[in-house]
Amino acid sequence: MKTIITVFLKEVRENIRDRRTVINTLLTGPLMAPLIFVLLINGIVSRELDKAEKPLPVPVIGAENAPNLIDALKQRGVIIKDPIAEPEQAVRDQDADLVLRIPPSYGEAWNKGEPAQIELIFDESQRDAKGSVERLRGIIDEYAQRTSTLRLVARGISPIIARPLVVADRDQSTAQARGGMMFSMLPYFFILGAFIGGMALAIDTTAGERERQSLEPLFANPVARTKILLGKLGATGAFALTTLLLSIVAFSFAGQFMPTEKLGMTLSIGTHFAVLTLIAMLPLVFLIATLQTLAAAFAKSFREAQTYLSLLMFVPALPTMMMSIFPFKVETWMYAVPLVGQQVTITRLMRGEVVTSAEIALCFACTSLAAVIVYFITAHIYKGERLAIST
Amino acid sequence: MIELKNLNKAFGAVKAVDGVSFTARDGEITGLLGPNGAGKTTTLRMLYTLMKPDSGQVLVDGIDAALDPIAVRKRLGVLPDARGLYKRLTSRENIEYFGRLQGMDEATIAKRIDGLSKALDMAEIIDRRTDGFSQGQRVKTAIARALIHDPGNCILDEPTNGLDVMATRAMRDFLRHLKAEGRCVLFSSHIMQEVGALCDRIVVIAHGHVVADASPDQLREQAGTSNLEDAFVQVIGSAEGLAA
Q1: For A219, which of B50, B88, B97 is closest by C-beta distance?
Q2: Smallest Cβ distance to B145: which of A3, A13, A217?
Q3: Element (H, E) at A8
Q4: Domain-embedded: residue A391
Q5: Quick one: three-class SS letters along A120-187?
Q6: Pairing mode, if any, of strands B76-79 and B2-11?
Q7: Domains of chain B (ranges plus CATH)?
Q8: pLDDT values of chain A reduced to their tens digit, one per residue, 391 residues
Q9: What is the spatial distance between Cα B220 and Cα B227, in angstroms, rounded to a whole number?
Q10: Cβ distance of A10 and B83 shorter than 8 Å
């Protein structure tokens, strides 16, 4: 045990003196997730609010053909802009979000009671313009609806005739669940934080040490290599854990500055969330540290190790992506799969759903088991002759 | 005392070490001489248990390296061919780390560092970070680190490699100092002058075999020449890979 502690302390001391490692562990890793989220959420919120309240400028061609329609639009906050010469081109070039064209035949058709056509020129692939298009279409539909009601009444027919079906929306999602959907990326950021926190040490303590030719003298000491490995894994895990802890704290803190209520969401980020997340993540941190060390042990050089570990970083993104693309129902076995278990646990906690202690225990135990298995593989590599030899 | 008995090691089809046997005694300096690629480093690596021999036996003070490698490593002070230091630690911290791994207590480590620092003339560099050390300063630190636990057997793989004239002289004096303390000193070199000047016994390795095992005088006699360099060339069969 003394040997393990000696190795652990030396690795920690040495890496604390490396400014780049410290910045990655204490700043980049933990702050990335909350920062991205605050920016993202604020961006979405301000855009949504903008869209709903701001006047909507629309270039209109042939406004003189439908003065009543134009009046109705103006009343609903649409600002009628001057016509554009080449509306299709302007929309394609994104000079205009949308253009309304009222043909000269509009007035005649309207007066005859025939469907009067107006054209809405827009680009469906422009996500930014979508809100404006939907809003204008809504206003026009409403105007059409009102007119049809008036026409029916004028002919002595009840307007109800024209509405054979009414759909009433009953959204069953809770405000917390809507928030959770948006935050399904969060577990990935926690996992990524642990990756970044441990990466420098995993490389430095194995591939780096070999490249600097200090592994061979180290192994000439009268201690078992597994003890050296355990000390190194401990140090790597400690750095990764520090990153994770800061990451959870930073996120809990940043969560209070996110205007989530404005989007009709609530998030359950508090002590309960932080503690359970930590328990679920703890074995994963060590699984990641061991995997990183294993990958670094295979690499011949520092650079090669960096390449392997960067590729390894994409692995935890897979369950996150799968889950956001394919809708799924949470099943018990999911807790038993490392990465997926943490993903499910954290997502549910955030939505304010109940995760039972049996589920947390399953997640913890199975990920721990995986970490132990990977440790034995790494220990086997560490005992090999080739590991120490750099020349 | 170090005894190697019929060591064999092959890497794939290449026989790096092929039946090497010799003994290095306490209170003597034994030189392992051979051209580059003769199998010196591989032999030493098997001796300090970094590699397992395919066959043969290594005994250090009578302990079989295959049966108790940790006890063997405890009795060895090893300066390997690879002598990387931890750049973000000071010279002292580098040495202390190895002392702790040897299981020494802090007071003994401190005392021992004082002694080694004097013997190796390291007072100026001992508390400096090793980043930016000269080759000589690095070797000194690596040697102090290797000998922190006061081992009875010292193995040094090309200890003067890359050192300037003054540092080489100081290193030779240090090796004599280790011998005077009654230790078993085994070092490898491809520099004949050095081996001739220092060694009580010379083991010449070529192509994985021991081709000579004698004192410098015996070696001259064997080859029938008064010049050691000519003697080497004659036992090895060619001058390839040797430096004066």
Answers
A1: B50
A2: A217
A3: helix A2-16
A4: no
A5: EEECCCCHHHHHHHHHHHHHHHHHHHHHHHHHHHHCCCCHHHHCCCCCCCCCCCCHHHHHHHHCCCHH
A6: unpaired
A7: 1-75+153-244 (3.40.50.300), 86-150 (no CATH)
A8: 888 999 999 998 988 888 888 887 788 878 877 777 777 777 777 766 666 667 888 899 888 888 888 888 888 888 888 888 888 888 888 888 889 999 888 888 888 888 888 998 988 887 777 778 888 888 888 888 888 888 888 888 888 887 888 888 777 766 555 555 556 677 888 888 888 888 889 998 988 888 888 989 999 999 999 999 999 999 999 999 998 888 888 887 777 766 666 666 666 677 788 888 899 999 999 999 999 999 998 888 888 888 988 888 888 888 777 776 776 677 888 888 888 888 888 888 877 788 888 999 999 999 999 999 999 999 998 888 777 775 5
A9: 7
A10: no
Q: Do B52 and A385 touch (CB under 8 A)?
A: yes
Structural domain contains residue A49: no
Please report the ipTM that was assigned to this predicted complex: 0.90
Asked if residue B206 lies in contact with residue B236, where contact means CB atoms within 8 angstroms, the answer is yes
Are A164 and A180 part of one and the same domain?
Answer: no
User: Inter-chain contact A215–B76, Cβ cutoff 8 Å?
Assistant: no
- Evaluate whether residue A48 is within a structural domain: no
**How many domains is chain A built from?**
2
A119 and A34 assigned to the same domain: no
Q: What is the DSSP letter of B67?
A: T
Residues A164 and A219 in one domain: no
How far does A217 lie from chain B, in Å, by closest CA?
6
Closest Cβ–Cβ partner in A3, A209, A221 for B73: A221
Question: Which of chain B's residues have a Cβ under 8 Å away from the Cβ of A206?
Answer: none
Q: Which domain holds residue A182?
A: 2-40+176-383
Residue in A212, A385, A390 closest to B51 by CB: A385
Which residues of chain A neighbour B82 with C-beta distances below 8 Å? Answer: 213-217, 390-391
Q: Best mutation site among B89, B97, B139 for testing chain A: the one with the most A CBs within 10 Å?
A: B97
**Contacts with A217 from chain B: Cβ below 8 Å:** 78-80, 82-84, 98, 142, 145-146
pTM score over 0.90: no
Q: Do A14 and B142 touch (CB under 8 A)?
A: no
Clarify whether residues A293 and A351 are in a common domain.
yes
Statement to judge: residues A151 and A228 lie in one domain: no
* B170/chain A closest Cα distance in angstroms: 22
Interface A–B counts its CB contacts (< 8 A) at 82
Same domain, yes or no: A335 and A304 = yes
Distance of residue B78 Cα from the nearest chain A Cα, in angstroms: 7
Which residue matches tokens 């996500």? A127
Same domain, A283 and A358: yes
Separation of alpha carbons A389 and A210, rounded Å: 7
Residue type, B21: S
Last residue of a domain, one of A108, A139, A170: A170
**What is the token pair recorded at A254?**
């940043």
- Of A170, A203, A226, at which residue does a domain stop? A170
**Running DSSP on this structure, what letter comes out for residue B90?**
B
Does residue A183 lie within any of the structural domains?
yes
What's the number of CA atoms in the CB half-sphere (13 Å) around residue A90?
15
Domain shared by A237 and A107, yes or no: no
